[in-house]
Specification:
five-stranded mixed β-sheet; 42% helix; homodimer
């Protein structure tokens, strides 16, 4: 069973590349920790996969509404998403919803959720 | 004791923002997992810090040599860094050393290592 993690970030907020990378890193760590706690089999299979690299895919959406819809879809699919809100100390308004992390999870569950999204 | 995680990425490789975000996410997850195993007190203090967000700082260097030097310095300081090598399937040559993650670790240990680096 192949596993991967998807991270989806908003591109409509005008974030710079450092800001984007930070939001993606938050989503990756929080989603991984969430799966480690609630589905350790998925987490450790992913951590120690054959490639030696934890497969990740970084995708984009252009609105908060699309991020919310993805969060709901992931939840319904049985993968609790990590939702990232920026503290708003630098470039953004406080509590801006910037990104989500989904998984690691089996591809047969994850791929249908993200099939229409484009790579960042 | 305030803790944070530093992620340092090379900017001399011509990586796009999606590629950069992916390397940063790999470094964040691998460094966090490494600290969880070898110094769980640091990991859980950081995970549950007062802000509810795991403090991260994303920095840049412009050469492999600087990334290697930082890795050595972190190791000497007692923080085992996560070194990220790209598989080279897309934009880069195989086994390109792209990024490192350091910590979460106490700021008094981490800050001296990164004081001369610029934000990504």
């Amino acid at each position: 069973m192949k596993l991967k993690q998807a991270i989806i970030v908003r591109t409509d907020l005008g974030m710079g590349k450092g800001k984007i990378a930070g939001q993606v890193a938050h989503a990756a760590v929080q989603a991984a920790e969430s799966i480690r706690r609630y589905c350790p089999d998925w987490y450790y299979s992913w951590l120690e996969d054959d490639d030696g690299i934890q497969t990740k895919i970084i995708l984009k959406v252009d609105s908060e509404a699309k991020l919310q819809a993805l969060s709901r879809d992931a939840f319904v699919q049985g993968i609790n998403p990590a939702k990232i809100y920026d503290a708003g100390r630098t470039q953004l308004e406080p509590s801006t919803f910037t990104a989500i992390g989904i998984g690691p999870a089996p591809e047969y569950k994850l791929d249908p959720l993200i099939k229409d999204l484009k790579l960042l």
